[in-house]
Amino acid sequence: MESEGAERNQSEHSRRGGPEDLHGMPEPEAAKDVAVPAANFVRGFARWCDKALTKPVFVTKHGRITHALINIDRYAEMNEELPVETHDREANPFELAEWIDEAVIICDNDLIIESMNRIASATCGISASQCVGRRLYDCLPKLRGTLFDVHLMRTVEANESTSADIPSPLREEGWLRLQSFPLHGRNVLMFRDITEEVKRHRLADVKAALIEAMSVHNAIGYVRVDVSGLIERVDEPFCDLLGLPTKRLLGARLIDLITRENRVAFKAQLQEAMAGNGARRLTSRFISNSGETEDLVAAIVQLRGAYGAEGAVILLTPVHIDLIHGADQETARK
Question: Region Disordered: which residues (predicted)?
Fold first, then answer.
């Protein structure tokens, strides 16, 4: 009965197309007496374990093979490691250098160049084929006697890792971010041009100094607004001009501080400046906290960030100071 059931299941399995992906095990046609339905397999587990010592036992469900029971020796054979030669091939630890977006030069302890990636070739203005196998300073004599040389020697002689921002010996008024470190008995130089970053930092320092100088001057108001015209930053002279604390001004709309008759003109000029249509200069009447008005000369300039316009910067001075300045210029011309 059981045999007939196995044969029926096996016949049904044959019609359905055979086992799927059983790692090279024999088809059940070659082992009809060891194909067993799942229900029978559970009830006679010990028996099927004995059968599996000599031949695989295929477990079926609704006539479709779903599992195979094999002995441990066969399992071990199937999971043997790949041939040694496929594992022991020495990997080049510096192949990754070609995928790094920084310049990478690899030298031995005699400073013979072993590898140079495409970024290094572009930065140094010399191809890798011209450098590999030659001494570093023969290929790039500009490096000798520079801070680049100092950091490299610390790595070569003391096996020390170093990192620093240094003046670039490869570009006039340029800067490099340099890393020098030992790796697998070699010396690695990794660097990138940071000239633009240094310029941005310097401009930021100049800006901070200017704002501080304006605060000391105490007659030049500074306001920064976002693209919606909301105040993001003000200095003390501007707060003093309007008689309002900084907390009251932050987040307020700048044009709300201007008298009604001047708002339309000021808003138009502000939008033109923020759209990148050039700096604007105009006189507007601002309302102080006491209710009095103050005529201020405003200079509006677009504020640009890394991803486009971020708002505007406005400098404001009382009209009487502007008039004095104009009179001085007229006197100088005479």
Answer: 1-27
Query: Which CATH architecture fits 2-78?
Result: 3-Layer(aba) Sandwich (3.40)
Residue 45's pLDDT is what?
A: 85
Every domain of the chain and the residues it spans? 2-78, 95-193, 204-333
- Condensed to tens digits (0 to 9), the pLDDT of residues 202-221 reads 888 888 888 888 878 888 89
What six digits make up the tokens of 167? 């003046």
Query: pLDDT, tens digit, for every residue of 295-319?
Result: 999 999 999 887 888 999 999 998 8
The CATH code of domain 204-333 reads 3.30.450.20
Nearest Cα residue to 6 out of 57, 69, 68 = 57
Over 80: is that where the pLDDT of 177 sits? yes
pLDDT at 136 over 90: yes
- How large is the C-alpha radius of gyration of the chain? 40
Other C-beta atoms lying within 10 Å of the C-beta of residue 234:
25
Q: Do 302 and 270 touch, CB atoms closer than 8 A? A: no
Amino acid identity at 10? Q
Domains 2-78 and 95-193 share a fold: no
Fold adopted by 95-193: Beta-Lactamase (3.30.450)
Name residue, tokens 């008024």.
173
Predicted model pTM: 0.53
Closest CA to 244 of 260, 262, 261, 231: 231
